[in-house]
Specification:
By secondary structure, the chain is mainly β. Helix content is 0%, strand content 47%. It is built from no helices and 25 strands. The protein has strands at residues 9-11, 13-18, 23-25, 31-34, 39-42, 54-56, 63-72, 78-88, 100-103, 108-110, 119-125, 129-131, 136-138, 147-155, 158-159, 163-170, 175-182, 185-192, 202-207, 211-213, 218-220, 226-234, 237-245, 277-280, 286-290. Strands 9, 11, 12, 14, 15 and 16 form a six-stranded mixed β-sheet that branches. Strand 17 (175-182) and strand 18 (185-192) form a beta hairpin.
């Protein structure tokens, strides 16, 4: 009496594969105890039949494919195992750029535009930053957010390649405009509250009569009183301050001789906040007075 062993095919298996595949050895996914003399056939329709257990998946679409491994024994006995191959689309991040440059205090939104409800997101960055939101949103961003970040997008366990990007935050210095006058030369100087100005800072002064300058400090021509503005720029970021120059002289004239000779023809005390004035001639006699300015 001959006794034939029961055909063995192992256990059913489900395998998740990430991204585009090439040739897949189906036999390598059989588990348990199985005979090696079985045959493969596809249950689904990939239009690429396995040959000797090798399935060419180069041109198949993402999706679920099922294959049956059959071992036939004597007396019409047989057994089969089902191998399920799930080829999952690998997310590809293409619509992001780097670096993201923003001015301190502005809002920044970073959107990878993946548009797939099955995707999940993992953002990491400086100072143990972590987020699982679809987009990154920074409100009134500060310098602490400067650095390199990484985004990984997952599609049911199939992860994208890490996408690294940099956030740059430009901080503009706090400053004030100092007004000085020496030898009747009015000077305006932008002075930082802390330290010195960065070499990358650009100065843009504007003022009356079409005045412009990219220097710091600036000197104001006689008589060009009015509103002056300074815009400090760095990496497209700007901060603006202004000052009203009431006078371009800082010395009280010792006398006045309005004879059109170009010397002491005017007696201008603008900007000195004069409340009262008296003028005497060379002999000490009062020739003019006013208790309400001049």
């Amino acid at each position: 009496i001959l006794t034939q062993a029961t055909p063995l095919v192992g256990l059913d298996s489900t395998i998740n594969l990430c991204g585009i595949q090439n040739s897949i050895n189906l036999t390598s996914y059989l588990s348990g105890t199985f005979d090696s003399n079985g045959n493969w056939e596809e249950i689904t329709t990939s239009n690429s039949l396995p040959i000797n257990g090798i399935w060419d998946a180069t041109s198949v679409n993402y999706g679920v494919y099922k294959f049956k491994y059959v071992v036939n024994g004597f007396c019409a006995s047989s057994d089969e195992a089902i191998i399920t191959i799930n080829i999952i689309e690998k997310p590809v991040i293409t619509s992001m750029s780097t670096p993201y440059s923003v001015c301190k205090g502005e809002d920044l939104q970073i959107n990878p535009n993946m548009n797939n409800s099955n995707y999940s997101y993992q953002w990491t960055g400086p100072n143990n930053f972590s987020s699982t939101n679809t987009m990154l949103q920074f409100n009134a961003i500060q310098s602490v957010s400067i650095g390199q970040y990484t985004l990984i997008v997952s599609n049911n366990g199939c992860n994208s390649d890490p996408f690294n990007f940099v956030i740059e935050v430009t901080s503009l210095p706090e400053f004030y405009i100092n007004e000085t006058c020496e030898n009747n030369i009015k000077t305006l100087t932008a002075i930082p509250l802390n330290g010195t100005f960065d070499a990358a800072i650009n100065f843009n002064w504007t003022g009356p009569n079409g005045f412009t300058s990219s220097l710091n400090p600036i000197q104001i021509q006689s008589g060009n009183t009015g509103d002056y503005s300074l815009t400090i720029e760095k990496n497209t970021c700007q901060v603006l301050k202004g000052i009203n120059v009431l006078s371009t002289v800082c010395q009280i004239p010792k006398g006045i001789s309005p004879n059109d000779d170009g010397l002491n023809d005017y007696f201008d005390l603008s900007g000195f906040d004069v409340n009262a004035i008296k003028i005497y001639n060379r002999y000490g006699l009062e020739i003019y007075s006013n208790e309400n300015g001049y």
